[in-house]
Amino acid sequence: MISPKAFAVTWAAILLFLVWAGWGIVSFGPWLGLVAGGLLIWSLFEYCMHRYLFHLELKSDLGQWLGFVIHGNHHDDPKDPYRSLMPPIVSVTWSAMIWGGLVLLFGQPGTVIFLGFEIGYVCYDTIHYACHQRPARSGIMRILRQHHIRHHYGRTPGNYAITTIFWDHLFGSYISAKAAARLNGRRS
Description:
Layout: H1 4-22, H2 28-53, H3 61-76, H4 88-106, H5 109-133, H6 139-153, H7 166-170, H8 177-183
């Protein structure tokens, strides 16, 4: 569990550290390209993690317990403000492993790619929190919130992306408002 203020302070410090750690590794143009590449990697990672790990249905008692701890508790009470942000013990641990993997794969530029990845993560968790805890009456936040709420309250699995809806379209897991209304027995 983490409060929004603690989340903001924690991740602002981490992102500033990553900017410092990655600064000067390559010139500015390629640096921006590596950050953008990290954002793209994050967006696909976000979709795959949510679809294939967070919604993995295991049969054993231990597997069911792990599924509940990892993500099921959030579905059990989606309005709980302490279940809308990933606890740092999870996010920072995973992040450290991913950073190490990117540096192993790409050398020093892996740190800059990781910065983009982490910017994507912070945007994801911030948007996810807002989808559950803040009203969104217009603009892109309204679209993202409606998309995510159909994931929680729809009668069919789908809408796994939080920040990048195009992955749901690409992989056939998009639930439109019309389809959700039809599945829930309402007219659209």
